[in-house]
Amino acid sequence: MPMNSSYQDPSSTLIYVSDYGYITSGENRNISSVYIKPSLAKRNLNVRFFQHGARNCYALRSLLAGNKYFVRALFYYGNYDGLNKLPVFDLYMGANYWHEVNISAAGAVKWMDIIVVAPADYLHVCLVNKGMGTPFISGLDLRPLRTVIYPEVNASQSLVLISSNRFNLGPTDNRIIRFVYRCV
């Protein structure tokens, strides 16, 4: 997304902003036109990729220390580099390992979710190069949570939500109301 731009997602009504000001490394590139479909969310149309540096981090600022946050990292390769080489890299929340990002298909959306307590007024989301392809990201969502939900999440323990263990308990008209998460 161009610097200092924003848009509102029509289905979720969330407002997405450019990552300008949250990270100083990496480059933006559009995905291949072959992978653009009418149903594809706008945030998946381009990626930020990191050819240089072993560790590239977003700084999510202006948070309240001690509050809980839901963070979603979203990945849609879409053959943005024209190499059709699916990368594998690691995702960290600050210094703590979050999950391996293993892109299995160029046209598949992959996401990683975590619920954390902010130790300070910021969080760092880092992509770490493992030498198995260039790390990239399509979107990064941050939502504040009420402190009473997810009581197992505290200053020393986060909750990683595995995407394969979610169930839609919403209506039958394909709208997503909420997910129930099962910890493994």
From TrEMBL:
Domain Malectin-like: 2-179
UniProt-listed Pfam families: Malectin_like
Membrane-crossing residue ranges in chain numbering: none
Domain of life the protein comes from: Eukaryota
Principal location: membrane
Localization (cell): Membrane
InterPro entries from the UniProt entry: Malectin-like_Carb-bd_dom (IPR024788)
Membrane topology classification: Single-pass membrane protein
Record-level GO cellular component terms: membrane
Cited PANTHER family: OS02G0151100 PROTEIN, OS07G0107800 PROTEIN-RELATED
Protein name listed in UniProt: Malectin-like domain-containing protein
Organism: Triticum turgidum subsp. durum
